[in-house]
Amino acid sequence: MKKSWLLFLGIVLAALLAGCMAGGSDDGDNDSDSSAPDVEDDELEEKVVVYSPHGTDILTEFQQQFENEYGIKMEFLDMGSQEILDRVRSEKNNVQADIWWGAPQVNFNQAADEGLLAEYEPTYADTLDDLYRDPDWLWSGTSITPQVIMYNTKEIDEDEAPKDWDDLLDEQWKDDIIIRYPLASGGMRTIFSAIIYDDYKDSEDPQAGYDWLEKLDANTKEYSANPEIMYNQVAKGVGNVSVWNMPDTVQLAEEKDYPFGYHIPESGTPVITEGIAVINDAPHPKAAEAFYEFVNTPEAAKLLAEEYYRIPTRDDIDELPDWIEETEVIPMELDWELVEEKQDEWMEYWDNNIKSTDKDKSDEEE
């Protein structure tokens, strides 16, 4: 009886061992079928630390997925883009984070110039246009944010809405334009700087751009203190036209039923690239590379597009939402380095010499 029991126990243990081995093999097959990077577990450090402005919803979702995929811990700090740049600068001699995920290319270019980022060319490099990466792969783009002309669809027909930047200067839009106070908005600063740069690139004189912004100011009803106020003012018809980014405009229309439509300017529009980078001297470099790849797989890009209204930079993503697939974006050609250099000067001039102070609501109680 004892021998029979031992024989039975041996068979059970053998079966369990075979099952574990088969499970390991299946996991390997799943990894090869997915787009997750093929990384040996023994190469990875015990955790990865991520700085990101993407918000807790996105970060928590990707934390769970990444930890399930690799079995290592992901820690994150959710901060604004400028806060991240300042923190990475302050930690240069005692690096705490591995990955910086999310910020406009302006911030990444500054960090690259200061030696804060490490070179990493991802496995999907051939799916990225040169517009959407650093020449030396110190950062690469994850999503793009085109700027658009937004309008109230209850008050303005699609055919009548402004279709290009110069249309905003038409007298019919006098006191009908609501603009987010530009000095506090990276997107608005980019739009205004792009308008100035359009003539400056040939003349090296910002005056034509200043003249254009003065005409826009004449048609502007108010400069709203924050985006929510601007959204509400346009939705209520206090002013029926604004300029804003495309993803937010679509999301507000679909999720909050705001009466928002948009036109992508026919002559071209500033396209802000959101990026990702490995931080120089990252304490967990292999885990950082794994995370970099993981959050940019086709599956991740589709999730971010469908759930969070992000337009992927990768050109190999199929079956994206219609608002992305059916839209042709014409990027405005910008010398981003020059725009970054001149932006503060241009915006200070606008604030002191062009803006109508009675339209500035940025100092009022929100």
Mean of residue pLDDT values? 89
Poorly predicted runs of 5 or more residues:
1-34
Measured as a percent range, the helix fraction is 40-55%
Radius of gyration: 25 Å
| Shape call | globular
User: What's the number of extended β-strand segments?
Assistant: 11
Query: Structural class, from helix and strand content?
Result: alpha/beta
Q: Beta-sheet strand percentage?
A: 15-25%
Give me the number of helical elements: 12
Major sheet description: 9 strands, mixed
The ordered string of helix (H) and strand (E) elements is: HEHEHEHEEEHHEHEHEEHHEHH
State the end-to-end distance.
83 Å
Task: Give a description of the structure.
- The protein is 44% helix and 17% strand.
- It has twelve helices and eleven strands.
- Helix 2 links the parallel strand 1 and strand 2 (73-78).
- The longest helix is centred in the N-terminal third of the chain and has 32 residues, at 2-33.
- The N and C termini lie far apart (83 Å).
Features:
single chain, 366 residues, alpha/beta, 9-stranded mixed β-sheet, two-stranded parallel ribbon, 12 helices, globular
Which helices and strands appear, and what pairs or packs with what?
Elements: H1 2-33, E1 47-52, H2 56-70, E2 73-78, H3 81-90, E3 99-104, H4 105-113, E4 117-118, E5 140-152, E6 177-180, H5 186-203, H6 207-219, E7 220-224, H7 227-236, E8 241-245, H8 246-255, E9 260-263, E10 271-279, H9 285-294, H10 298-308, E11 311-312, H11 322-325, H12 336-354
Parallel strand pairs: 1-2, 1-3, 6-7
Antiparallel strand pairs: 3-10, 4-10, 5-8, 5-9, 5-10, 5-11
Helix pairs in contact: 3-4, 5-6, 5-12, 6-12
